[in-house]
Amino acid sequence: EPEEDDIYAHESMSRQAVYDVVSSRYPCAEEDVVNLAAIQMQAEYGDKGFALTRETLVRFLPSKFLDATKVADYISRIKVNHASSAGLTVAQAQKKYMDVVKSWQIYGSSFFFCEPQMSVDLPEEVFLAVNPKGILIIHPETKEIIKEYPYA
User: Fold this and answer.
1) Strand 110-114 vs strand 134-138: parallel, antiparallel, or unpaired?
2) What is the CA radius of gyration of the chain?
């Protein structure tokens, strides 16, 4: 972790976390992405917010959540969640975003593409995520955690 007063390191980590969420590198539940989108909007646009449309949601949500039938619902929920972040500074909003992402067991992982050998219960190809908490086996398409092996 960077020093608390290292604003550039925190900014860099925040940008990376946003990228990892929006690009679906980190598997996220729907409620998490809606909450994170609202926090990201607060960090980037402050209390005034931003005009959300299906086209602008790509900056805040992973593509799998951009189903045209749910866009209006997501926009409404993001606006409600954004209101609860009112008054946060950029740094406070980024910290709030990072606190959510850091709570996930996949946070801080290095990823390796693997082809499991002699395992009938795994797909032909998987991602291996290695982090300080343990090792995770992740489905490459759904990004869901298939198995986990904690160190302790």
Assistant:
1) unpaired
2) 17
Instruction: Count Cβ atoms within 10 A of the Cβ of residue 89 and give its class: 0-12 exposed, 13-18 middle, 19 or more buried.
Output: exposed
Residue 143 confidence (pLDDT) = 84
pLDDT given at position 45:
93
Low-confidence spans in the chain with pLDDT less than 70: none
pTM of the model: 0.85
Lookup: tokens for 25: 């590198």
3-state DSSP assignment of residue 149 = strand
Handedness of CA 54, 59, 60, 64 (dihedral sign): positive
- Taking the C-alpha atoms of residue 100 and residue 16, their distance in angstroms, rounded to an integer, is 14
Residues contacting residue 119 through CB under 8 Å, at least 6 positions apart: none
The CB-side HSE value for 143 (13 A sphere, CA atoms) comes to 13
Predicted local confidence at residue 28, as pLDDT: 86
Strands 110-114 and 126-131: antiparallel
Is residue 139 packed enough to be buried (19+ CB in 10 Å), middle (13-18) or exposed (0-12)?
A: middle
* DSSP-based three-state secondary structure for 119: coil
d(CA 87, CA 137): 39
